[in-house]
From TrEMBL, chain A:
Organism: Micromonospora mirobrigensis
Protein name (Swiss-Prot/TrEMBL): Phosphate transport system permease protein PstA
GO BP terms, alphabetized: phosphate ion transmembrane transport
Described function: Part of the binding-protein-dependent transport system for phosphate; probably responsible for the translocation of the substrate across the membrane.
Source lineage: Bacteria, Bacillati, Actinomycetota, Actinomycetes, Micromonosporales
Gene3D superfamilies to which the protein is assigned, alphabetical: MetI-like
Family: Belongs to the binding-protein-dependent transport system permease family. CysTW subfamily.
From TrEMBL, chain B:
Keywords (A to Z) from UniProt: ATP-binding, Nucleotide-binding, Translocase, Transport
PANTHER family named in the record: ABC TRANSPORTER I FAMILY MEMBER 17
Cellular component GO terms held in the UniProt record: membrane
Entry annotated with the keyword Nucleotide-binding: yes
SUPFAM superfamilies from the UniProt entry: P-loop containing nucleoside triphosphate hydrolases (SSF52540)
Biological process, per Gene Ontology: phosphate ion transmembrane transport
NCBIfam families noted in UniProt: 3a0107s01c2
ABC transporter domain residues: 5-247
MF annotations from Gene Ontology: ATP binding; ATP hydrolysis activity; phosphate transmembrane transporter activity
Protein name: Phosphate ABC transporter ATP-binding protein, PhoT family (TC 3.A.1.7.1)
Gene3D superfamilies referenced in this protein's UniProt entry, alphabetically: P-loop containing nucleotide triphosphate hydrolases (3.40.50.300)
Organism: Micromonospora mirobrigensis
Amino acid sequence: MTTSTLTSHRPRPPAQPATLRTRRLPRWVAPAIGVAALLIAAAVVYGAGIGGPVLVVVLGALLYLAGLFAAANAVEGRRSARNRTWSALIHSAFVLAVLPLASVVWTLVSKGAERLDGNFFGTSMNNIGARDANGGAYHAIIGTLEQVGIATLITVPLGLLCAIYVVEYGRGRFAFAIRFFVDVMTGIPSIVTGLFVLAFWVLVVSPVFNDGRPGFSGFAAALALSVLMLPTVVRSTEEMLRLVPAPLREGAYALGVPKWKTILRVVLPTALPGIVTGVMLAIARAAGETAPVLLVAGGGAAINFNPFENNQSSLALFVYQQAGDASKYAPARAWTAALTLVALVLVLTIAAKLLARRNRLGR
Amino acid sequence: MAKRIDASNVTAYYGAFKAIEDINLTVEPKTVTALIGPSGCGKSTFLRSINRMHEVLPGARVEGSLTIDGQDIYDRDVDVTAVRRMIGMVFQRPNPFPTMSIFDNVVAGLRLNGVKKKSVLAESAEKALRSANLWDEVKDRLGKPGAGLSGGQQQRLCIARTIAVEPQVVLMDEPCSALDPISTLAIEDLMFQLKDKFTIIIVTHNMQQAARVSDRTAFFSIEKTGDPGRLIEYDNTQKIFSNPSVKKTEDYITGRFG
């Protein structure tokens, strides 16, 4: 590029408008365009006989965007037209993202309500045949609570200490290696953790406690789930600890507070709400896992309170088994169990958030 | 109670970068000493090496000798937390602990160092808050979060937190740079009062402030960017601001340099 072209393309300040006021579209125009777009889309789709209501909405949305741009461009000018079009696009993206979520919740509630009774929460599937309308998920709820509870007890201290090491103490290759392998662990499929625990715990270690016979147990499932939860807990805790400002640590050091106490009493409380969120995400993921439980706890129809002996089921596994069952009563049980699982995770999350907030001071 | 600080040949590094070189100065007990100089001349680094906060950063280290009443604070047998309890520090930006109330902030140093008795904590908190001229403003809301105070109040809260552990020396790293003139005045008044009990060393960019509050002034400077900072002149504040013996000092305080 030569100098002359550079000078000729020198940016000029935009022309100053004579007035700050511009013409605006009247309020009724945007909704009117929307209605018109839908009507045209309906006429086209049904007139040509090429689709149903979904296509009408999609085509209507596209027509609405085009119409809005054209109208705004004609009256308000180009900048305003772009602004309106992009706003409409962002809103439609939000609606698109929420639609599946709302659909899932609605499906769960409407289909799960059928078996939402005392019998479902009070009985197991023991001795329930294909022609029995009864039967419930009591044993699966116990299994989920125990397995996820044990997994959380294992994971949270381990994950917190690991993250504290990496952020506060770790230097050099070892800390780097830990971070790297935690990242690698994030990508391990759940079935692989199940196979790992099957090969390591169920087949090799459990015979030692079990008169030489390998045994399924809820505890083995908890081990597999904790392998799944660990990287999530470590990574989210790590991020939260890094967000704690350095001046806070220095402020504590300057008071003669030892490093470990600074971490325990200043850094962790400051990062607590974020850490709780990370732990809850990990719990939610673990509670929804089917494969590891199937592999190492085996499932089972009877109530088993003991996580260290014999088969246990879990809600996710229950859903899987009932959904594949030939009995005409099974699908209803699966839907209600799925609803129960979602509600359980929701309640746990809300409770944890409230607990974490209670530790903060009110403004 | 206040103690004398002796620095001889203090040199501090950030990794391979030498930030200050061969600083020699003596700070008398119960005085206010101001460290002035252009940005990057190492006055904050020197201040942070006095209570061993410099070494908190990875790769940072200090050579030479720093003693407090004859005890070498960099001795191998010295517990770093004991040094910091004896030499407190107030930072440039107020940094109250966000999860703690005003009361908890003030007694944080005591509580985290093992003081549990409620009556002792309450007494120390009131004493420290009164010394920091903050008591009347916060006595009715000690349970409210410290982060809800104004900037000037937060800084005085941090000063109260520092003096609650009863140090011998208080280091202040540009304590007023984030504050308005009224809060600055409140903190300068406070320094006059604290001088009775503590030795105070303050880093400041505000020459009027140095002239107002300090008994002695140390002028630091660097030759050019990348060179280590050196102590150019150290004398009574009045002498430095009226008749400095080094040309460079005069250039700086009259605004012809830096």
